[in-house]
Amino acid sequence: MYNQSQTKGKKTKKYHPYGGNKLHQFINLRRLHDYNTDLSAKYKTFRIYNPFHGEVYTSDPANVEYILRTNFDNYGKGAFVNHTLRDLLGDGIFTVDGDEWREQRKASSHEFSKKVLRDFSGVIFTENTIKVGNILLEAAKSNQSVDITDLFTKSTTDSIFKVAFGIDFDNITGSNEEGARFCHAFDEANALILRRFFDISWKIQKYFNIGTEAELKKNLKVINDITYKLIHTKIEQKQKAKDDTLLKKQDLLSRFSQIKNTDPKYVRDIVVSFVLAGKDPIATSLNWFIYMLCKHPQIQDKVAKEIKEATDMSLKQLEITNVAEFATRVTEEALDKMQYLHATLTETLRLYPALSIDSKTCFSDDVLPDGGSVKKGEAMIYMPYAMGRMTFIWGDDALEFKPERWLDENGVFHPASPFKFTAFQAGPRTCLGQDFAYRQMKIFSSILLGCFTFKLSDESKIPNYRVTINLQMDDPLHVFVSKRYGIYA
């Protein structure tokens, strides 16, 4: 299981086996997560040779629990991750440790716990889903395929900017050119910044402003120009307001602008981090969700049947004449009844986690539960994508899309250990937006699946992923939609 032991004084240290080196990863960059999955199936925990610092990769839940909870203080983002991601994420919550992380975590946690934010977000999610539904209705009438990835990305972008920052980008209708520019630049920067982890020449390219680093710089300028414009607008609104009590309650940006004397750079880093958390992961998850339902029509029908029953459509389906009317039936009570939908979304996240790989830095020499040593300064990386495919974690049917694995004998959803199902991290850094994400995905999917049947425009196509911070599809997902249950009679 381990490489040859190394002896130093009276202590013997054991190191995990080498699975390859950075060149192997770079060669396999387009299928990086599957490359790491193959190594995980062989080793559980392994090393990748990096001439600059050690890297340890694990899919072992015991090791994951140890680094994310048991010995949490010894594993953080560290200088390496901060330096690599800083041009895009700055000193936001995803790149910092210590007091800076605690300050942002506390403020974010306080805001996410508020009922007013939950209720407000529900309204925004529903409004944007109706907009998407109306576009799908027109596609259904004309029997035209539609790019669902584009629609979901625009919708989640509109939602996160409205809920978190009080700004309406209106990407869904395509009327906001600035919003479209921001989304394109953000997606490109996302992919290019992650490439730095596997391309050891990135610092040279950045110094000479060539290659992918030159492209990254252009996209970052677009992101920064638009973001700082939004921040200054918000600050001006706050300064003009005689009573800013209401302003503080409206969005996350207003709250964070109260910290550190409204330093625009600090607020910029907060903004970009929350855009990353609220835009791409949810859109990406919904894309894979629709794809999996198209590949498993019997599961799609079962989800739709549950939605129909939860919204009492069996009694009043003929009274529903449009998407907006159906959306009024998707109440809190109805969403709570959708246990199979929740399980199907979770099963999608098991196989296609938005955060497919996550890196921590070891702050002092340590020994993992499996006996393998980790040196100070080494990267300690766990892999939600690979973990979701491990038979030693999920059984022989690990590669099957099986929502039932999340339900008890009464059809009630039961979560797995967060150190086994790591789509939302675990321990002190557990994703603050987990409930926020499920809420948005359930509102979107229940309304859309309650109104439409989805079918791939090309049944033979198997989508690939882009190696970005999130597991985005490499190409647009085109689908045909048709009206469901005689709605719009």
From TrEMBL:
Annotated heme binding sites: C431
Pfam families documented for this protein: p450
UniProt KW Isomerase keyword: no
Known cofactor(s): heme
Molecular functions per Gene Ontology: heme binding; iron ion binding; monooxygenase activity; oxidoreductase activity, acting on paired donors, with incorporation or reduction of molecular oxygen
Superkingdom of origin organism: Eukaryota
Family: Belongs to the cytochrome P450 family.
Name this protein carries in UniProt: Cytochrome P450
Species of the source: Centaurea solstitialis
